[in-house]
Amino acid sequence: MTLKKTLTIAGSDTSGGAGIQADLKAFQEHGTYGMTALTVVVTMDPDNSWSHGVYALPTEVLQQQIKTALSTGVDAVKTGMLASEEIIKIASDAIQQSGTDKVVIDPVMVCKGEDEVLNPGNTTAMIEYLLPYATVVTPNLFEAGQLAGTGTPKTIDEMKAAAAKIHELGAKNVVIKGGKALPTEKAVDLFYNGSEFKLLETEKIASTYNHGAGCTFAASVCANLANGLSVEEAVIEAKEFVAAAIQHGWALNEYVGPVMHGAKPRFGAPKVTVTNV
Ligand SMILES: Nc1ncnc2c1ncn2[C@@H]1O[C@H](COP(=O)(O)OP(=O)(O)O)[C@@H](O)[C@H]1O
Ligand SMILES: Cc1ncc(COP(=O)(O)O)c(C=O)c1O
Ligand SMILES: [Mg+2]
């Protein structure tokens, strides 16, 4: 038996909930074979309120990892935390070399619970080097506002305007994650494929144990594309998958509550409703 091969180019979250750890767990749960190219290692200091340290790996090490993974012939690629313009360019080259048209860009700019934005200058590089190759881009509200240059959207209409702008910049499909931040009764994401806007909604789960939700969502989209689902099917299943993961999120310690990546196959998932807007 062979498996579809999925590659994540992203950071390591040592605490295991987000980053490549989330990606590998989501890849596995979707029955794909996950591979990794690490960009940075993120650590958390238990003696200083779990404050994050971000350590970049030498770019030669990243290049060698990409060479290894691409030599196997990957079916789909996802990017996560990239941390510098140079790393963004390397990821862009890797995507082009991979020859796949199944590319999920998760434009990570902030970690939940951390105020600091990772190198704001990277936004320009993501626009230039990554969006033109994105089959799907998955910004949260803040990231969508940065990419679109509109400021953080606060309403569905503002999300639509930002999605249209990001599509114009080259991303074939855009999912803006309203998630918990949007003041709506449901957890609302906006999907735009260049011709239709759709709202994807689940119940909003009252939980703060959501660390890694964004990575888990994007990695699930990537695995679903590798497995041959259409973009819309891939996004809807990923939303079910992450909603279940949040529903069963848990406290790792007093500082962080990761999602339970593999919750959907074990406990089932909330239903996603789709409405044209
Ligand atoms: N409280 C919640 N209940 C249900 N779904 C949620 C909740 N928070 C986030 N989500 C969903 O999880 C996915 C990831 O979103 P989010 O956590 O906002 O991303 P990020 O981690 O990148 O900021 C999205 O599909 C979003 O709608
Ligand atoms: C390496 C890494 N990538 C990505 C993220 C973003 O995680 P989320 O899925 O919560 O947006 C984090 C957050 O801690 C991280 O450490
Ligand atoms: Mg995120």
Quick synopsis:
The chain has helices spanning 19-29, 59-70, 85-98, 122-130, 141-148, 156-168, 213-226, 231-247, 263-267; strands at 5-13, 33-45, 51-56, 76-79, 103-105, 136-137, 173-179, 186-192, 197-203, 273-276.
Q: How many alpha or pi helices?
A: 9
Overall pLDDT: 96
Shape type = globular
Count of extended strands: 10
Largest sheet: 10 strands, mixed
Which segments are poorly predicted (pLDDT under 50) over 5 or more consecutive residues? none
CATH topology: UDP-N-acetylmuramoyl-L-alanine:D-glutamate ligase
Number of domains: 1
Percent of residues in helical segments?
25-40%
Q: Could you give me the name of the CATH homologous superfamily?
A: Ribokinase
Q: What would you call the structural class?
A: alpha/beta
Distinct ligand kinds: adenosine-5'-diphosphate, pyridoxal-5'-phosphate, magnesium ion
Strand content: 15-25%
* CATH architect. name: 3-Layer(aba) Sandwich
Q: Order the strands across the largest sheet as they lie in space.
A: 3-2-1-4-5-6-7-8-9-10
Global Rg: 17 Å
Task: Compute the separation of the termini in Å.
Answer: 42 Å
